[in-house]
Amino acid sequence: MSTVSSSQLIDLHTHTTASDGTDTPAQLVAKAADAGIDVLGLTDHDTTAGWAEAAEHLPPGMTLIPGAEFSCVYVDGARRISLHLLGYLFDPEDAMLQDERARLREDRRSRARRMVENMAADGIPITWEQVSDLAGGGTVGRPHLARALVLSGVVPDIDTAFRDALSSRAGYYVRKADTDVFAAIAMVRSAGGLPVFAHPLARRRGPVVDDEVIARMAEAGLVGMEIDHPDQDATDRAEAAALARDLGLIGTGSSDYHGTNKPTGLAVATTRPAALEALLALPSAKRPIGALA
Ligand code: AMP
Ligand code: ZN
Ligand code: FE
Ligand code: FE
Question: Which ligand places an atom closest to the C-alpha of 115?
Answer without folding.
Answer: 1
